[in-house]
Specification:
Blueprint (H helix, E strand, L loop, with lengths): L3 E2 L7 E3 L3 E9 L6 E5 L4 E5 L16 E8 L6 E9 L2 E2 L3 E6 L1
Parallel strand pairs: 2-9
Antiparallel strand pairs: 1-3, 3-6, 4-7, 5-6, 7-8, 7-9
Length: 100
């Protein structure tokens, strides 16, 4: 089954220079293998907390997943689309607005 992310579990805006570490909720997240963000210039999206920005352990499972989004200082403001990928296919896309 396709993964799905609850839009209410992810912030819809962030500022240049921010690093977001978010526990998203949804369905069928246990098989997620990747995360994509487009346009990607100046914004990096990663599964888990590879930058070590928080002190609590990462929790994942069929209805929960940790995502990290790092917005570089040279990122252009504007809208980005973010989604996760699994062997079954891509999830719904979430909107993230990058602000100055």
């Amino acid at each position: 089954m396709l993964p799905a992310i609850d839009p209410l579990s992810f912030p819809d805006a962030a500022f240049v220079g921010d690093v977001l570490v978010v526990d998203v909720r949804g369905r069928h997240l246990g098989d997620v293998e990747g995360v994509q963000i487009k346009p990607a210039r100046g914004v990096r999206a990663m599964l888990g907390d590879p930058l070590g920005r928080r002190n609590k352990p990462v929790e994942s499972g069929p209805d929960r997943l940790t995502l990290t989004v790092a917005i570089d200082f040279d990122a252009y403001p504007g809208d980005r689309r973010l989604w996760v990928q699994s062997p079954a296919g891509d999830s719904n896309q979430l909107l993230l607005t990058v602000m100055l």
